[in-house]
Amino acid sequence: MADKNPSLQVWIRKLINELEGDKTTIVHGDFSPKNIMISMNDEVFILDFEVTHVGNPVFDISFLIAHLLCKFFHAPDALQANLLAKTANAFKKEYEVLREISPSFAHHAALIALARVEGKSPVNYLAPNQQHKLQKHTKSLLARDAKLSLLDLFEMSAR
């Protein structure tokens, strides 16, 4: 990723250092909607622990939000895109009840979403124009030397 985006190398290194420097919890590693099941009784079941490891808790929340961000760019209309943004916001709020979230979570999510287009494991459902919009948006966010929020990630005008 850093080789493809030299202007983002400083941010990429900073985010990698944060992940590598704080190994304080068990990280699922593939925490995405496809690995979360909810029963008819609203019981939550997490699946697929094959890449679980000790790491930084910001990874799992950022991975899930990045997944929702990719779906946001794939959404066929503004209503569905808005529902995805609200889902991300609801998840973040509930997570914050249990644990403080790193201020850099949105940067991590933007970088993971970018990696899902430019990296080794790209999503297969984004059309070329959606990939381009996601790349442009995430690169723009990562180029900022300022704190990012969930609202910045799910900016409707970026779609």
From TrEMBL:
Residues 1-159 form the Protein kinase domain. GO terms for molecular function: ATP binding; protein kinase activity. InterPro entries: Aminoglycoside_PTrfase (IPR002575), Kinase-like_dom_sf (IPR011009), Prot_kinase_dom (IPR000719), Tyr_kinase_AS (IPR008266). PROSITE patterns: PROTEIN_KINASE_DOM (PS50011), PROTEIN_KINASE_TYR (PS00109). This is Unannotated protein. The lineage of its organism: unclassified sequences, metagenomes, ecological metagenomes.
